[in-house]
Every structure is written in structure tokens, then in C-alpha cells.
Amino acid sequence: MSQSSYLFTTRTSRKLAEQIAAHYGQALGAINILEFSDGEFEPVLEQSVRGGRVFLIGSTFPPADNLLELLLMIDAAKRASAKNITVVIPYFGLARQDRKDQPRAPIGAKLVANLLTAAGATRVMTMDLHADQIQGFFEIPVDHLYASTIFIDYILQNKIDNLTIASPDMGGAKRAKNYASHLGAEVVICYKERKKANVVEEMFLIGDVKDRNVILIDDMIDTAGTLCKAADILIKNGAKSVRAMATHGVLSGNAYQNIENSQLTEVIVTDTIPVDEALSSKIKVLSCAPLFADVMKLVHRHESISNKFII
Hints:
Number of helices: 8
Helix content: 25-40%
């Protein structure tokens, strides 16, 4: 007898989860969230999952209740005798805390990995971690997907000529190079110096962009300060146009306003985090639902997922 699969979602990821479920070909499972007057909540699975594979879909962006809700759902599935619990986390929160970069600092990404495993997760599926080595924080299988499979198709469909791929910082140079190799494009790098988080003090351009159409590639857009400053420098150095592509549209603070008032032609993100396109005419959202649904089906059938990776 083949193993049954069940899909559930956290509240804030419902829109994406509904699209994933539609592509997967199965409705989301019923879940009841009991809420107490002090803010405490209790997710209760409304159907039996005994002996089956449970997919729990939920991005862990702030507030921390999103992570807690996912952990409680994992515990509920474990106690309901699910055989496999695959946690689908399109955006893995706290991933920027991947190392101890100053005395007495936590390593938040490792803590989250420990929590997910302790709660009962048997597999994790995510996309574009801030640092690839976070996969090593887990003692369970991790399927690390890349939005490049979505973005590269978009670039090819739009037939952008004189294309140059840019990294907004040194850390993203490898990602930019991989994109460029698939697209036959040139690569430039914006070197930035920070005095504190979310504030870029200085930025310099390494490479030539004169009369080029430039696409900035990054894993996330937070306040959009880095991207807007990079766009200014690229235009100043002769770029014809500057677009930005980032997997996760965190878009905190004045991000929407910064993007709207910037020299960026277009900003493309995926829907790993809910994004309000109405707040900026320059933002376009591409869905990651088909990719996650395809990989979930392959995992459930115990088939290889290697052809789903570009970068």
C-alpha cells in the first residue's frame, strides 16, 4: 500500500500553500487554531495522519509566532503518529545569524535547526538560504532549492540584450557568476562597507557596465538600501538600465518607498514571503509554488530531485 500524503500550512503562508497544494494536486488539510485571550495559540490537525507523510508549509519570517506555530504543528503531527514529517520552509528565518561574528552573539540559524529537529521534523525543504552551510546545521535531510530555476527562465523570456549580472556585495559573487555562466553574460561586483546592520556606509563598483543592461542578483531584499545604492552607482557608471532579482522580499522599513523612488527599472522577487505589489509599481512577484510542488511530489515518490537544481 502506498503511503498517503497530507499538506498543512501556517496561517501567514496560506496563500502560497494554497498555490503549492493546487500544483501538487491535493487540497490542504484541515487545521484548527485555538486562540486564547492572552495570545497563546494551539494548532490542532483535524484529520488523521497516522503512518503518512505530512508536509507542513510555513515561512518563518517575523514575528516569532510564525516559527512557534510551525514547531507546534510539527509536534502535533509527531504525536498523531505521522511516519514522515517534511517541513517546507520557503523562507528560513534567522538565516543571517549563521555564525558567531562578535563576542557573546548567538547562532540563530543553528538554534532554529535544533528546534525543528527536536520538535520531530524528519526532512526540511527550503529555498536560497542566506548561507549554504546552514544545511550542515541539520542531522536530517535538507532539500535546498534555488530561485535561479525561476529567475533564469524569466530573463530568457524577456530577451534582455547587452546583459550584465551584478552582485550587490562580495558575498554574492559566486551566485552572480553562476547566473552569468548560464546566461552567457558578464559579471560585475559592488563592494560595500557597513558600519551597522541595514546601513551601507560606502560602495564601489568592480567592473565595467557602460551601455549594459544590468541585473542585480541577491538572496533577499530587506530595507532595499543596498540595492538602491548599487543601482545609483551602476547608472552613474553608464549602465542603460538596472533591475534587481531577489528570492525573498522581506521589504521592511521604508523598502517599498525606497524601491519606488530608486533608479531601478524593475524588482523581481518570489512569493516565499507575502509581498504587496500595490505598494510599488516596480515590484513583480514570481511564484515558487510550482517548483516546491514538483519537488514535494518527487520526495514523496522517493525519486531524484537533482534535475530541479540549476545553481
